[in-house]
């Protein structure tokens, strides 16, 4: 699958849509259908049209869905540790394992100070880099150990979100992308308990 798809999805989930950093990712939405061989050829163009036609305040939807005044209380938390920790904490054991993976891979993330590295947008941006560098073992480890075990729940919650159409539509594309990666790379996921 395409590193470009991972980068676009990661950027759209990490950066607030009213930020300058999000502009190139929003502009690239129309190219998503042609950037990869999608298993359901008609589905991605359909969801891209939905994304393009939404008139909602995407910045408001982003804040409502992904941020909250207290840790882990966002309706759709974008951090893996919230799903994998019994107390739904940020920066929990799964975050520390992911941080160790990043160090082993000699990857340094440029992100908001104090924010855990296991944000789904950051993880997708890291995946894009590893795909570009053709580091297949690292790609498989990132997906199997750090992203796929919890991202299905994130996708499910985002699809069920009632705040606007943009992010639920984006979750359909993300779900298809992750499923295709899992299939193509023949990833066998470990069984873990999710708490959210």
From TrEMBL:
The keyword Metal-binding does not apply. It comes from the Bacteria. InterPro entries: DmsD-type, DMSO/NO3_reduct_chaperone, TorD-like_sf, TorD/DmsD_chaperones. It comes from Plesiomonas shigelloides 302-73. This is Twin-arginine leader-binding protein dmsd. The keyword Protein biosynthesis does not apply. It holds the Pfam family Nitrate_red_del. The lineage of its organism: Bacteria, Pseudomonadati, Pseudomonadota, Gammaproteobacteria, Enterobacterales. Keywords: Chaperone.
């Amino acid at each position: 699958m395409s590193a470009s798809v991972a980068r676009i999805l990661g950027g759209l989930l990490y950066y607030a849509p009213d930020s300058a950093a999000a502009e190139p990712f929003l502009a690239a939405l129309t190219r998503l259908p042609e950037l990869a061989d999608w298993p359901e050829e008609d589905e991605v163009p359909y969801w891209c049209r939905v994304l393009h036609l939404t008139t909602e305040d995407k910045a408001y939807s982003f804040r409502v869905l992904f941020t909250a005044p207290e840790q882990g209380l966002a309706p759709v938390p974008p951090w893996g540790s919230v799903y994998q920790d019994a107390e739904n904490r940020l920066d929990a054991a799964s975050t520390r394992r992911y941080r160790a993976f990043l160090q082993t891979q000699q990857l340094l993330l440029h992100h908001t100070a104090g924010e855990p590295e296991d944000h789904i947008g950051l993880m997708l941006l890291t995946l894009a880099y590893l795909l570009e560098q053709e580091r297949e073992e690292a790609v498989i480890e990132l997906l199997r150990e750090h992203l796929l075990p919890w991202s299905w729940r994130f996708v499910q919650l985002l699809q069920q979100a009632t705040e606007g159409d943009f992010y639920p539509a984006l979750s359909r594309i993300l779900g298809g992308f992750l499923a295709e990666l899992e299939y193509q790379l023949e990833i066998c996921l470990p069984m873990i308990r999710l708490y959210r």
